[in-house]
Amino acid sequence: MGFFKSLKEGLKKTRDGIMGQIDALFKRFKKVDEELFEELEELLIAADVGMLTSEKICDTLRDKVKSTGTKDPQEVRDLFIETIAEMLEGDMSLKLDTKPSVILVIGVNGVGKTTTIGKLCSSFRKDGKKCVIAAADTFRAAAIDQLEVWAERAKCDIVKHTEGSDPAAVVFDAISAAKARKADILICDTAGRLHNKKHLMDELAKINRVIDREAPDCDREVLLVLDATTGQNAINQARAFKDAAGLTGIILTKLDGTARGGVVLAIKEELGVPVKYIGVGEKIEDLQPFNPKAFAAALFENSDKVDDFEVNFGEEPDDEEDTEEGGEEQ
Predict the structure, then answer these.
(1) Cis peptide before 167 (omega within 30 of 0)
(2) 53 phi/psi in degrees, rounded to 5
(3) 12 pLDDT exceeds 70?
């Protein structure tokens, strides 16, 4: 399945929900007036885009309509899609040039952190990168076992201690292993809880001190995994983690299971943190690097623009095992 087709299918619930109503809005109106913008803003807020972001979209759209002299609501629709893509633009690349580079993966329990790590490893392996996983979420029951399942599935080494061990000690040993095995990337799972921001900050600070000492010149990414089905709550989580952890990017999972895909816009606009990957299904290849133009087009099923947005993200999995879901935290 091509990238755009997979993305389009993964966003079906969002497209059939509020975004479908927005599409119908542009078809229903015969002229471009303030009533159209007011209804559009209400629908955007209902789609978990957020009030501030919804206002900005509509203000930008008003300016574009004024500057272009557009009078056809269908042309405004195209300007709307263009505006969404522009707002989502940013540096979505991962800076992983050193050997090893380190990725810290954080997020509350239940967002799909474990499966995301497995899918990232599989993707990197297909790009010829060697990965080591640090099982540094040592407090949640069965977290290490679930991560082992994914490490085996993604054909990556894993460094683990017993449950309840010091997470920073796991990262220390994992850095040593990554160096000894000449790994390209070390991916560190971290504790999935946010009930105490100070405790989280202390724990992440300790892990970062170990990385600073043992791999001082390494490239480092701090990626927050969020569950798209939680809507505005995901933004609140992101805001808290941003303050505590110095995020470099967001991975938004479970977009295929929600009509709240508009939350991508709110995250980017309100937090200023780029969305770097999105999950639009259960298969390993359904974790995709985020492409703003393709995302905006897929929200409205702009199949006429597929050629503009088609991106090759590698070959399909070469074995059946790699397409299976498993070991996700509850």
Answers:
(1) no
(2) -70, -40
(3) yes
C-alpha distances in Å from residue 8, one per residue of 21, 178, 223, 260:
17, 37, 24, 15
Instruction: Identify the bridge partners of residue 289 per DSSP, sorted by sequence position.
Output: 277
pLDDT of residue 321: 39
Per-residue pLDDT of 107-165, as tens digits, reads 888 888 999 999 999 999 999 999 999 999 988 878 899 999 999 998 999 999 998 89
Q: What would the DSSP string read from start to end of 69-111?
A: T---HHHHHHHHHHHHHHHH-S-------SSSEEEEEE--TTS
**Residue 280 carries which side chain, given as an amino acid letter?**
V
CA distance linking residue 57 with residue 97, whole number of Å? 36
Average pLDDT on 43-60 reads 91
Q: What is the pTM of this model?
A: 0.85
Residue 172: which residues within 8 A CB-CB, separation 6 or more? 210, 214
Residue 195 binned pLDDT confidence (cut-offs 50, 70, 90): low
Q: How far is CA 86 from the centre of its chain?
A: 18
Residue 30: other Cβ atoms inside 10 A: 9
pLDDT at 194: 56
Q: Which residues contact 104 (CB under 8 A, 6 or more apart)?
A: 188, 190, 204, 207, 220, 221, 222, 223, 245
The whole-number pLDDT of residue 142 equals: 84
| Helix (H) or strand (E) run with residue 252 in it | strand 249-253
301 neighbors 15 (Cβ within 8 angstroms)? yes
Going across the sheet that includes 185-189, the strands are 157-159, 131-135, 185-189, 101-106, 220-227, 249-253, 275-279, 287-289
298 phi/psi in degrees, rounded to 5: -70, -25
- How many CB atoms lie under 10 A from the CB of residue 217? 6
